[in-house]
Amino acid sequence: MIQPFDDTYFMKKALQEAQEAFDKGEIPVGAVIVIKDRIIARAHNLTERLNDVTAHAEMQAITAAANFLGGKYLKDCTLYVTLEPCQMCAGALYWSQISRIVYAARDEQRGCINLNTKLHPKTKIEGGILAEEASALMKRFFVEKRNLN
To answer: Which of 74, 86, 109, 149 is deepest in the core (most CB within 10 A)?
Structure first.
């Protein structure tokens, strides 16, 4: 039996959000939050548009999901994000008590793994789902940005 709602399916939805960020001139990071195979939040970076360094895709998604659920905890939820969360976002995810984080591409310099940021003890994290696609979009963004400057 084919499972249509798997990690690849939801990461593709996050990549659609990243593409939307790219199209708006934002660093192309997208996120969706899922509970029981249902997307309850979609978001992408809005740091330029909102002139707010905290307006990362994950932060926007956490707020939207909490509003949808009517509470601050995201237990039984999975975050799909196209780039490994930064320290700030990992901290917010810690406090949300999200059950699972799935990221596409690693962020070797600013990501929560190399910075040893603690996640909630019950949070599981895994990466590499559609990493090549996410990395290609990110690289294309910065190549185009450098060519404009």
So the answer is: 74
* 28: Cα within 13 Å, side-chain hemisphere: 22
User: Any idea which residues carry the catalytic annotation?
Assistant: 58
Furthest CA-CA distance within the chain: 51
Distances (CA, A) of 24 to 44, 70, 94, 122, 124: 10, 30, 29, 35, 32
- Angle at the Cα of 93 (from 65 to 39), degrees rounded to 5? 30
| Whole-number pLDDT of residue 47 | 97
pLDDT one-digit tens code per residue, 46-77:
999 999 999 999 999 999 999 999 999 999 99
CB contact at 8 A, 52 and 46:
yes
- pTM, rounded to two decimals: 0.95
Q: Judging by DSSP bridges, how do beta strands 77-83 and 30-35 pair with one another?
A: antiparallel
Name residue, tokens 């949070």: 123
